[in-house]
Specification:
It is a single chain. The chain has a domain at 25-82 and 122-168: Ribbon (Umud Fragment, subunit A), CATH 2.10.109. 24% of the residues lie in helices and 30% in strands. The protein contains 4 helices and 12 strands. By secondary structure, the protein is an alpha+beta fold.
Length: 193
């Protein structure tokens, strides 16, 4: 009987330890609104990796969850475009980082607004929603302080049709190559006709 009670107690302790470990490393979050469409949709449930930035710095292209700049009770989800010290500019539907235009296959539509060259301050990140024209993000004059970042969006778990890893795009995959420039110019010409 003592052995049986000891096994139950050990199982309970192990379950509590696993539960606490998961609570400190992973968080579930629901996408609210359309600012990250087409990749992330309203009502989609994600798992957020809360410890990844303990071991590594946030990178351009990462999809992050952070406390809203206006309401700490609300979380936002956006994509990092600029790191501290970067200069971001948006004009003619193109986003540039430090003078290099980005190829952004993940956006809904090119931005219809202009942003004069903006230098990202120390310990801050410039973020944009993938649905550029329907997103409250850094083009509105605010950035995300490092301490406001909750974690990196990692895995989509609901609905089942959206199950899988969240798309993060490193800067190397976003820099516009000559081939991409031709495709962009062709697309713009087609749109103008």
């Amino acid at each position: 009987m003592k052995g049986f009670l000891r096994e139950i107690l050990a199982t309970l302790v192990l379950a509590v330890v696993i539960f606490l470990l998961l609570q400190t490393t992973i968080q579930s979050s629901v996408v609210v609104g359309s600012s990250m469409e087409p990749d992330l949709k309203d009502g989609q449930r994600l798992l957020i990796n809360k410890v990844v930035y303990t071991f590594d710095e946030p990178q351009r292209g990462d999809v992050i969850v952070f406390n809203s700049p206006n309401n700490s009770q609300t979380d936002f989800i956006k994509r990092i475009i600029g790191l501290q010290g970067d200069t971001i500019e948006i004009k003619k539907g193109m986003v540039s980082v430090n003078g290099s235009k980005l190829y952004e296959p993940y956006i809904a539509d090119p931005p219809s607004y202009t942003l004069q060259p903006y230098k990202v301050q120390e310990n801050n990140y410039f973020v944009l929603g993938d649905n550029r024209n329907r997103s409250n993000d850094s083009h509105n004059g605010w950035t995300v302080p490092h301490q406001n970042i909750i974690g990196k969006a990692w895995l989509s778990i609901w609905p089942p049709s959206e199950w899988g890893l969240v798309s993060n795009y490193p800067l190397q995959e976003q820099l516009v190559s000559p081939i991409h420039k031709q495709a962009i110019l062709l697309a713009k010409r087609t749109a103008w006709q």
